[in-house]
Amino acid sequence: MTSDNKTSFTIKQTTGVIISLLLTAIFLYIAFHGVNFSRIINLISQSSIFWIIVLILSLLLSHFLRAVRWKIIIGSVKPNASLLNLFGALMVGYGVNCAIPRLGEVSRAVVLGRWEKLSRSSLFGTVIVERVIDILAFAATVVISAFIWTGNLYANFPWLKTSIYIVTVLMVAIILFLFLLIEMKEKLSKVIVRIIGKVSEKFANKIAYIFEMLLMGFGSLKGIRNYFLTVLITVIILLIYALNSYIGFLIVGMENITSVNYGMAWMVMSISSIGVIIPTPGGTGSYHTLAKSVLVLLFGFGEEISLAYAIVTHIVSYLLFVVTALVFFFWLDKKYAKRNGRREKFSDIIKTQMDEE
User: Fold this and answer.
1) How far apart are CA 281 and CA 102, in angstroms?
2) Is 230's pLDDT higher than 80?
3) Which one in 20, 149, 254, 303 has a CA-CA gap of 20 to 30 Å to 293?
4) Dihedral of the CA atoms 259, 263, 264, 268 (nearest 10)?
5) CA-CA distances (angstroms) from residue 41 to 37, 200, 215, 289, 306?
6) Cβ-contact 108, 92 below 8 angstroms
7) Are 215 and 189 a contacting pair, CB within 8 Å?
8) Rounded Cα–Cα distance for residues 334 and 327 (Å)
């Protein structure tokens, strides 16, 4: 990487971090403005340790299933890939995302490539495929929420109706595009890249790279059986995510205020997941704002108990990601060092990508 490119990259990354922190500050202000902090702390102090442990186990299960799904996706690339390595790399990615949004996807491909001796290009493709699947899945949860909620959802979230229309159109468009891309392969991508290249060659090269990764990713996911298993596991993961939201009710004792059910948890999960998509570190701020909004506007909970719910569930998942990322990286990296005679620092997974960006 040249000096000018390094400077450009540093400015780009610094700008991204600043924007991320600004978004976090704005959302935290929106979420916590005018609330009684001492009341929130008191509610958090009464949280159920038992249900926190249950939530941790449920979170681990959902992410273990994500590792199983990833194993299926890379099946044709390396059928005997270690599920432990896949799970460890996944958790490393989540841990990195807690510090630098969106870099976790790159990080998990880098570390898994090192541990399994696989090319990062093939793994980047599978990670992109996973992201596409997740986007479609979470979009579907929002659309489903509009049908399962018996009240006037749009009165409380006026922006949601337009969002659902847009999401539905985008879902259909993405599915159709992926079908055509897989069927036509290089033909379609070359046409699109050629058109974009007339406007910006640099952007066209990035699009070409993404298309190449998508084709490699979907190319590794072969067979009707694997497609079926991928969809099935994705559905199970979403159901467990909603269960995690329900466990959050029990942690802060919301069932003592009014009856809670799985449908309510699905609503919290689906709408607050939009906050996770926003590029803030680990969804900090954006998740709190949306989770609080759903609990207050749809279910009538007080602001303090709603924020206690958001804080506890977020802290549990955040700390789980960070701790397991460090544990898995250093544990598996030790195994890697014995096999290859070289041990690398945790920061190398970030530096490697920065040097090659």
Assistant:
1) 9
2) yes
3) 20
4) 160
5) 6, 52, 49, 17, 12
6) yes
7) yes
8) 11
The pLDDT-based confidence of 9 (bands split at 50, 70, 90) is very low
Contact 113, 123 (CB under 8 A): yes
Over 18-76, what HEC string results?
HHHHHHHHHHHHHHHCCCCHHHHHHHHHCCCHHHHHHHHHHHHHHHHHHHHHHHHHCCC
Query: Residue 54 has which token pair?
Result: 């249950």
* Cβ partners under 8 Å of residue 182, min gap 6: 215, 218
pLDDT in tens, 238-248: 999 999 999 99
CA distance linking residue 143 with residue 270, whole number of Å = 9
